[in-house]
Amino acid sequence: MASAAPSPLADRFRDGGSARYAEYRGQLTTYFDSTARKAWVDLTSDAPVSGIRATVRAGRDRMRATLLSWLPEDLSGRRLLDAGCGTGALAVEAARRGADVVAIDVSQGLIEVARERAPESLAIDWRVGDLLDPALGRFDHVVAMDSLIHYPMADIVGVTGALAERAQTLSFTFAPSSPLLATMHMAGKLFPRGNRSPAIKPVSETRLRRTLAERLPGHRIAHGERVASGFYTSHALMVEAG
Question: What are phi and psi of 84, to 5 degrees?
Fold first, then answer.
């Protein structure tokens, strides 16, 4: 990536983010701990789901495999943060490869499910809280799968800037701008407010790459891949120091 002056936006996110970031995080906590808990438990299991949700499950499985493929097969001695771990599938696989895993999510309910599903032989540090918490320390690798898709680009850049400073590699996903996502976003507004999930915020891949290049000096985009499966579309990038 091109070198540039340190980002004031990233500076602001080192100590917990912006007021809007906190607002969006609060919405996600409420959603996943109440409205959507059972749906996500089913989606991330082998339970039968609708055709639409089956495409989402397949897409998430492909995306998780993609992100894991960018990491070393042997993670022994490496410290990894699963930032927004949900029910823990990626954290479990990283721990099986030997990583010292910290898995954090805003949802107490999803962390409880993750703890129950994880093999007892894996010593994963499950936490409820904010992925930006400075107390989490530094990592060799940070992975944030579909954790930032409900945030606007300014927050995505701020969060990735703060996390990239604390790890050798940061892999994250975002919702790429597309006519389908725009249509889904508008359709979601038709549901009663109490039944709505937090809106996905489509982001321009070109603008995001350009902004990261400007605001993350000393880093480069090492990998990028889009996964599209029915109603699931997500784009992954790996930002690497050096």
Answer: 90, 60
Amino acid in the structure at residue 109: G
Tell me how many helices (H) and strands (E) the chain has. 9, 7
Write out pLDDT tens, residues 142-165.
Answer: 999 999 999 999 999 999 999 999
Helices 153-164, 19-30: axis angle to 10 degrees equals 100
User: In this structure, which amino acid lies at residue 104?
Assistant: I
The pTM of the full predicted model, rounded to 2 decimals, is 0.88
For residue 227, give every residue at least 6 positions away whose Cβ sits within 8 Å of its Cβ, in sequence order, or none: 59, 62, 63, 66, 233, 234, 235, 236
d(CA 203, CA 62): 21
End-to-end CA distance of the chain: 9
Phi, psi (deg, nearest 5) at residue 83: -90, 100
For 68, the enclosing helix (H) or strand (E) is helix 51-69
